[in-house]
Please model this.
Amino acid sequence: MMDNNSKQTPQDFAMPAINFSTFILSLNSAALVHLGAATDPINGSRSVNLPLAKQTIDILAMMEEKTKGNLTDDEKRLVTHLMYELRLLYVKEAKGK
Model:
């Protein structure tokens, strides 16, 4: 266990393998934070930033379009599901729930 004065190094964290799914999931996490549906890991609070949420959702939509025909079935299901859920949350938040 580390004391409060110790600095954490990259070796202290078990990072997941980087692949398409983990990249898409990281964008999803960012969108959820911007929608106020998840806690910001930096400051521990929840707040809504619709322009940033929309930008992140638009990036995911671009990735979905640019990778069409090149994804595995699991990757395609993941992107389709996340896009549906994020768009639904965005519309709810934009309409004031």
